[in-house]
């Protein structure tokens, strides 16, 4: 069994099953190592299919950082697996895109934030929003992860500071999404998509716009496709993909219709922002 099987089949396993399934343990160790929850371990020996003390400790710390109670309940299902699959490492080093017209990261991120923050607003906790409590676009779960990773006690996202907001957007969205290697129009759209859908979700939208298999992982194939299509046209394709996804989501879950107008207004505004002088790309 693999983590993706838990997601695709909405399956559930208990701790005894997990710790006796070598394939599942290897999958678990691979993801925990990739996202930095097994530091100081030799990856060649850490991924061995044995559920030892290091793996258990890494699993416990991941669940705490992700605000999941699976380590306590001993039950692991689709929500746990999806969260582990979607979580990305703080930095994914890649070869810089050749020939791209780039701005300094601070300038590009400031431009991207100019759009994103005008739509995120302040503290909200809508009962029908699966993301839960959110402030300036940062969910409570994301804030918990940030505070734990910085060895700080968790607290309500309503207390987040402007510095923490900037740090989170830079270290947990801008950098791991690979926005710095993109031309400005694409970086703006890709970053805002990462904030909306998570880094893995943003990479899937990018991959779909590039016409390649969408697995949410920025690997060599995605980088090669990006090299050939690192432009504003790809950015516009992502915006259209977002609009299509919003409508499909509401069709499959009518309770989300209350958000549809706001979502579509944001997507349409993003398309307009790409063409405006305010984005510095006209």
UniProtKB/TrEMBL annotation:
Peptidoglycan binding-like domain segment(s): 23-80
Q: Which domain of life is it from?
A: Bacteria
Pfam families (alphabetical)? Glyco_hydro_108, PG_binding_1, PG_binding_3
SUPFAM superfamilies (alphabetical): Lysozyme-like, PGBD-like
**Positions of the TtsA-like Glycoside hydrolase family domain:** 114-198
- Which InterPro entries does this entry report, sorted A to Z? Lysozyme-like_dom_sf, Peptidoglycan-bd-like, Peptidoglycan-bd_3, PGBD-like_sf, PGBDSf, TtsA-like_GH18_dom
> Domain Peptidoglycan binding, which positions?
202-266
Q: Which residues cross the membrane?
A: none
The identity of this protein, by name, is Peptidoglycan-binding protein
Q: Which organism is it from?
A: Phormidesmis priestleyi ULC007
